[in-house]
Design goal:
Elements (H helix, E strand, L loop, with lengths): L23 E3 L2 E4 L5 E6 L5 E6 L9 E7 L2 E9 L4 E6 L5 E6 L6 E2 L5 E3 L2 E8 L1 H4 L13 E6 L5 E6 L6 E5 L5 E4 L1 E2 L7 E3 L4 E5 L3 E3 L8 E6 L5 E6 L19
Antiparallel strand pairs: 1-2, 2-3, 3-4, 5-6, 6-7, 7-8, 9-11, 10-11, 11-12, 12-13, 14-15, 16-19, 17-18, 18-20, 20-21
Length: 255
């Protein structure tokens, strides 16, 4: 009866202006990240902090929990990604770091979808905020391309990485003030992927391109082979969609 519900406890995120991450519940704990980069394990009954871990960047997506085998034995691990494209595994009981892997070196790359744990692998979606940098007419927009990365959940070692745009960006034209532009770019994966056990597939959706020429796997559904990362199929829902933040400000040089 919703009208009779009362607040049992509340937790305020220190030094944080907003909260984007969904909480994950496991074994009497609440695991949740924050835009300050701190991930908390809270007692589900009281809200008291059991441990906290400081990531290198903000954590916007839910934590995933899975059981892994390491040199020191079996652990339940908490997996999450941050705003600098690092993926982490920490001991779910103590918060001790088990491993840390950077899945993308592009400066504006980040992880906004939850890494998904399945069969001792962690599948990590990679996105980027480069479309925001495109608002500046002297920015050489754009060279980032989205990807899906599979990691060994016990070690953090990369097993495969598949880009949503197969070819690297190349020089295209110059804008009206003479800045070199690049493309194709974009097609980030902002959200969490889904696992299809029956078809041994992973499904994800992509965002728009950040520059011309546009590509065929932007604004699309994509299916990847779980073992190899091979693209099984894609279905584009909106073609010829290139967008940067310049498209919503008066100076549309890079739009």
């Amino acid at each position: 009866d919703v009208s009779r519900l009362k607040v049992k406890w509340a937790f305020g995120f220190p030094a944080t202006l907003d909260a984007n991450a969904h909480p994950a519940i496991a074994n009497g704990r609440v695991f949740v990240g924050s835009t300050s980069g701190t991930v908390y394990s809270l007692d589900a009954a009281s809200g008291c902090i059991r441990w906290y871990f400081k990531a290198d960047g903000g954590v916007r997506a839910a934590v995933s929990i899975g059981k892994i085998q390491t040199d020191s034995g079996a652990h339940y691990a908490a997996f999450f990604g941050d705003g600098r494209s690092f993926t982490y595994a920490v001991d779910a009981n103590t918060g001790k770091l088990l491993w840390k892997t950077q899945v993308e070196t592009f400066p504006a790359g980040h992880i906004t979808g939850s890494p998904i744990f399945y069969n001792n692998r962690l599948y990590v979606p990679v996105a980027s905020g480069e479309e925001g940098a495109g608002a500046s007419p002297d920015y050489e927009c754009c060279r980032f391309r989205g990807s899906m990365v599979a990691l060994d959940a016990s070690t953090g070692k990369q097993i495969w990485k598949t880009y949503t745009i197969p070819e690297e960006a190349h020089k295209t034209k110059k804008n009206k003030i003479g800045t070199q532009l690049w493309g194709p770019s974009g097609a980030p994966i902002w959200s969490s992927p889904s696992i299809d056990v029956k078809r041994n597939a992973l499904y994800a959706t992509t965002g728009d391109n950040y520059s011309d020429p546009t590509s065929r796997m932007s604004d699309a559904f994509m299916a990847f082979d779980l073992d190899t990362g091979k693209i099984l199929w894609s279905r584009q829902m909106t073609a010829s969609d290139a967008y940067t933040a310049a498209c919503r400000i008066p100076d549309k040089t890079n739009c």
